[in-house]
Design goal:
Elements lengths: L7 H8 L3 H8 L10 H13 L18 E6 L10 H12 L3 E6 L4 H13 L5 E11 L10 E8 L6 E5 L1 H14 L6 E5 L12 H15 L7 E4 L5 H12 L6 E4 L2 H13 L9 E6 L2 H5 L5 E4 L2 H12 L8 H4 L4 E4 L3 E2 L9
């Protein structure tokens, strides 16, 4: 290589990986960040052959940006739906000309602290702290003042950080509007939550907001929900049991299921009772899980905008100045991303 100093880019080019991967391996963080043993071996061998020596001078001390941001999540990557948040964040990061470093904690609070510390060691310019499901958290002290954006998370205590969330209140209104536009004014029942919402487990903001939107939209035209069946878990078997219980007491004209998996169970209970969707009972739901388009008839649902959520979180980190910085953290607020309706075949006018 002559007199020129061997750089991370040189090692990365030989191995065929990113400079970030090389840096993490050579700093001893490869195992913590789930980089394979084989990849770590290849990086170390290449560094040895090229006679690479780490430059430990921090770019931050020189007043420079590293052009990297960190995406730290609980289980986003392993979630079939929520994984699209990463794709959205990656696309936005490219538009801003930065590299996205990603790490997953699997819900381990101790590892989350380690991961955030590791990212800080590499002087990332900002953080996105994300969750696969909307929930409330205590903000890690390491991120309390930013620059950081919360994705699918709400702080328990007052915080200057921006939260990016799906607009569940608007989604509830949209689901109710689908039924109203089809002519439904009576016989509307809920699967997944009671009509008052008092049975919603603490921190379950999704159910609370969806229910509030449903009730608001119906109330504006003088319509009320006739009943609701709470479900502790939003799984097909719970939807089946709740719908079967409802059918033992009433004849619904329309069901609003709080989740597509509940709707799957509701379909089965309706079929077992000899009822068809949508001729006998219309069904509308939320999330746009892959099962929604595979059900027969295909399920009308209000989609979670995972891709847009990830992109918006990155955009807000760079808002106004084009660089993440403490100014963004001072304007703590909640930014809600619209949830579009996927119109399919599960809703029809009442007989």
């Amino acid at each position: 290589m002559g007199a020129r100093r061997v750089t991370l880019a040189d090692v990365a080019k030989v191995v065929g990986v990113s400079q970030t991967t090389v840096s993490l391996v050579l700093s001893g963080r490869g195992r913590d960040l789930r980089i394979s043993e084989e990849m770590q071996r290849r990086v170390r061998e290449a560094a040895t052959e090229l006679e690479y020596r780490r430059n430990r001078v921090s770019t931050a001390r020189l007043g420079a940006r590293t052009q990297t941001i960190a995406f730290v999540s609980d289980s986003v990557a392993s979630s079939r739906l929520a994984g699209h948040m990463i794709k959205g964040a990656l696309g936005a990061a490219r538009r801003h000309g930065v590299t996205l470093l990603f790490g997953e904690t699997e819900g381990d609070a101790g590892f989350q602290r380690t991961l955030i510390g590791t990212m800080r060691d590499y002087q990332v310019d900002g953080f996105i702290l994300a969750s696969a499901h909307t929930r409330t958290i205590t903000i890690p002290s390491e991120l309390a003042t930013g620059p950081a954006v919360l994705l699918n998370l709400l702080p328990r205590e007052p915080s200057p950080l921006i939260s990016v969330l799906p607009d569940e209140l608007q989604a509830g209104r949209a689901a109710a509007r689908v039924l109203l536009d089809a002519g439904h004014r009576e016989g509307i029942h809920l699967i997944g939550v009671g009509p008052s919402g008092v049975d919603v487990p603490p921190g379950r903001t999704t159910a609370t907001d969806r229910l509030a939107g449903i009730r608001q939209e119906l109330a504006e035209v003088g319509v009320e929900v006739e009943s609701g069946r709470p479900c502790r878990w939003w799984l097909p078997e719970c939807g089946f049991e709740a719908t079967a219980d409802l059918l033992g007491k009433a004849r619904p004209r329309a069901l609003i299921c709080l989740d597509d998996r509940l709707a799957l169970g509701a379909y089965q209970a309706l079929q077992d009772a000899g009822l068809t969707v949508p001729d006998d009972v219309s069904v509308v739901s939320f999330d746009d899980h892959p099962i929604a388009s595979w059900l027969r008839p295909a399920l009308t649902t209000v989609a979670l905008p995972h891709h847009d959520l990830g992109a918006k979180a990155v955009d807000l980190l760079f808002a106004d100045t084009g660089q993440p910085g403490p100014d963004h953290a001072r304007r703590g607020r909640t930014h809600r991303v619209p949830m579009p309706v996927r119109h399919r075949n599960s809703v029809a006018p009442p007989r």
